[in-house]
Amino acid sequence: MGRLAQMRMAGAAALGAAIFAAGACSQPAAPANDPSGEARSGETAPQNDDVNLDLWLERLEVGSRELYSARAEVVEAVGLEAGDWVADIGSGTGLYTLLFAEAVGAQGQVFAEDIEPLFLDLVTRRAADADLTNVSAVLGREDDVTLPNESMDIVFIADTYHYFDDREAVMRSVYRALKPGGALILVEFDIAQGEERPDYKSHVRFGKDAVVSELEFVGFELTEDVAVPGLDENYFVRFMKPAG
Fold it and tell me: 66-240 is classed in which CATH architecture?
């Protein structure tokens, strides 16, 4: 089993606990455990309180640190336009999927892609709760994002690329899914050569220069290295699929 699958299964198990607990809110209160685990929040839920799924989602999403706190700035930097078709690869809990859906409007479409069905079920539920009708869930594979060829204006990948085991195969499938002239946005932790990484960066295996080299090998052209307010440990780079 690949690293991405292991990560998604662990996250889905925690999220499944939160969803199950939320479904039990109408029943007599019972002692509650923190569904996200002490390793993520260092807290346990108050005893006998109704479980608030939105609260637990926020706590899970805050675990991404900058990507949560700077989410508005990241969405602005992506540069979405009304009517765009966007793919959120490794969409997880749907944090960016829902923000993108609001940004592209009813004429646009956002594809939440993940290899874990439980996450896709959650995103679908959250979109329905928010009355967003322009979100589609896509079950991917570890070597293919399974999106239609030349269908996307923008593909967004945040805090996910370093988990791909077969990065070349995945990114070739992304390349196929983009329209000519379409944009790939990548947001990732950066590490310097020889850097002694803190525990929360231990899963990051390579820095920005190596990632850029890999994506250029696939055929993408680096067009912009964007300084996004609020992103200090993550870099934000924009690539283009050549138009001709």
Answer: 3-Layer(aba) Sandwich (3.40)
